[in-house]
Amino acid sequence: MKLRTNLLLAAALAGMAAVVAPTRIAAAESGGQITILYDAFGTDVAMKKDWGFSALVEISGKRILFDTGNDADIFAANIKAKNIDLTSIDFVVLSHRHSDHMAGLNHVLRVNPTVKIYAPREGFGIYGSSLPSSFYRKDESLPPEMRYYDGKPPEVMKFGTAWQRANIELIDKTTEIAPGITLLALVSDAPGTKELKELSLAVNTSDGVVLVVGCSHPGIEKIVEAATAINPRIRLIAGGFHLVIASDEVIAKAVSALKDTFKVENIAPGHCTGEPTFAALKKAYGDRYLYAGVGTSLPLGPGVGSVGRRGEGPALLEDDLAAYRKLAQREDPFGILRAQQQRTRLSHL
Ligand SMILES: [Zn+2]
Ligand SMILES: [Zn+2]
Fold this sequence. Notes:
single chain, 349 residues, alpha/beta, seven-stranded mixed sheet, 9 helices, binds zinc ion
């Protein structure tokens, strides 16, 4: 009964909010929480630690699964440990194509095969893509057997996905997918991940934007800047800031941009943010640094910074560090190999 009253109240408030500001979620409605389901640090003994990211974002009456971690079995174990029913989630957001964010998708689809999934649109990307057949040059002097599709291509050429039956909607540009809920679509320009498209989740509440980021390959500052176009007040950022090998100078610049330029109110860094950046952010944010290890739930009630566990978590184990150095070497998402190659080249000059 109480629940029903609350729902009715929420619906009434939502109606009022719609008149005043259609894309802003009322404060009373914006309560909820972000639960970290996948990361390589944390204090919850029931949760397994591994490199990667996933979070359940419960906000504005929606349950959004943001990313799915690095290993389907570990992801499944953590989902079970937190008693999360994957059949009741509203949709999944896959921030980008890196495996430490999407490997648990198979588990999600086993439990909920028709769930709506938002993923970035990339040419020949793993989530599928399409192009108008006008993209390739034609030569009408050729006989049909030497021409693509015998010279009669379909108007739109579709390219496959690794999850053929999944209900994937590809996002090309920043899109408001539900009232107040926007997927920011930005492209990385960094060596090693050039042209990688990444989605970040921005939820506009009357207390400012709650921003969830996966790996921030396009740059955390650029993502925050895009979020301020929705609402200049940024209430909270959670997720990976991609500063895991950044120099102190770069870290200091990013911290200052978040705190002084964009005046981000609360910060809950995780994943590829990096240990020295955790330290720098903790120093800059003090009480408004929200610890967000795997298993942590961050309440999103009004005055998000006033509740929940604060401060520094236990330091990462050496093992974790070794694991992500190894991972980084495999693909070079952090530009490590490129930096090393440049150093070697310079030393030969
Ligand atoms: Zn990544
Ligand atoms: Zn990542």
